[in-house]
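Hello everyone,

My group is preparing for a crystallization screen and wants a predicted model to guide construct design. The compound we'll soak is glutamine. Before spending weeks at the bench, it would help to have a computed complex in hand. I've included the protein sequence and the ligand's SMILES below. Output in structure-token form would be ideal because that's what our pipeline reads.
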Amino acid sequence: MPVLAALTMNPVTAAKRSVLSLAGAAFKRSLASAVSSPLAAHHYPVTPGSLTAHLKLKSGETFTGGSFGAPVSTVGETVFTTSLVGYPESMTDPSYRGQLLVFTQPLIGNYGVPGRARDGFGLLSHFESEKIQCRGIIVGDYATKYSHWNAVESLSEWCEREGIPAITGVDTRALVHILRGQGSTLGSLSVGGEKACDAIEWVDPNVDNLVAQASTDSVRVFNPNGDVNIALIDCGAKYNIIRSLCAQGARVSLVPWNHNIVAELDSYDGIFISNGPGSPTHCIETIDQLRQAFDVYQRPIFGICMGNQLMGLAAGLNAYKLRFGNRGHNQPAVDLTTGKCVITSQNHGYALDDSVMPSGWDRFYVNANDGSNEGIRHLEKPFRSVQFHPEAKGGPLDTAYLFAEFVDQVRAMKATGVAATTAGYNSVPVDAAKQQQSATA
Ligand SMILES: NC(=O)CC[C@H](N)C(=O)O
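Reply:
Good plan to model first. Here are the tokens for the complex, ready for your pipeline.
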């Protein structure tokens, strides 16, 4: 809507509608104050009569729009993704747990939501977990009509059914401008009365161990007849990681994030560490397990995203929080072993500080945009990890070869009789080791 028209609009209607003027230079000049101005508007609530929704950042900016999800209120870390497609996959990716997800792609919902068909491994074919994991979604322009051969419901119906609030009519360009400037920020999404968001308590989801919430409670086996047995440490694994390993012919034992794998190393031909939500620093048990495994395990270990961070922490690196993270499907990463650049799918807010590498380790990939770490590798042992998502879903399949390389290596080492652990290894369960440590402390 032209800004002038918005300014001459009935102020009550305008106040209900939206918040931002996009008037060129004025946009940049007065961004901070314009955000909370109720005067200008260029988007509409999704349908006449739909509930008003508000997104309020902890830093004070408020965006008003229309609700198209569940009529509930929530708080989360407001993060944005630049992906153009893949909202069903992103919203069910456990790594988005605790977050309010902003889509920079303005038109969202136009291909609806697919059904819950399962593949031959028992995994949902079109989702990355059983349910929506993000706390809410924020879009510029929700498409009220959808069309796709496998859609069974609208994005609005899905959100409502799963109790997830959703807001449309938000100037996501202005919102992302703020988030890029000040970094990922706590936000409240409230539906209903104008003041609903004032009642919200600001609780940062990252203070909790979100991995413990997302992980499986018990061991689950996929593709039981696979010829090599992979322990997949579940920090909140996306289904396509499990599927990608199974599709290579591997048997996958999905184990809880704090499972005592050190006591079972001999039964695994390879170890894989999944993606997962929140800060890696909460996963002390996993880091402890990996540190012990690095000393004695001789077969391949591979990590993805949270898995890269946990392997890095176990190797002796530190992790830090990125200002606004890298979330999208077109992030360039350079393989430092070949110089080749690959386009990758990403979703992370933390990164390894790889400025000084621990002895025996090297950088594997680096982000070609911001220079942040995209992976590490051991120089002698078959241990590697990547910060991006070779399993895609959504995103490009450029790096799917990493699954084939991993399982091929696992298979080759098994065939040539490489023992799982070094000779003389004393398999002390981690809990017992911890007790010993505290007893001698
Ligand atoms: N996708 C992931 O595994 C994300 C890892 C971690 N939660 C981060 O945000 O950096």
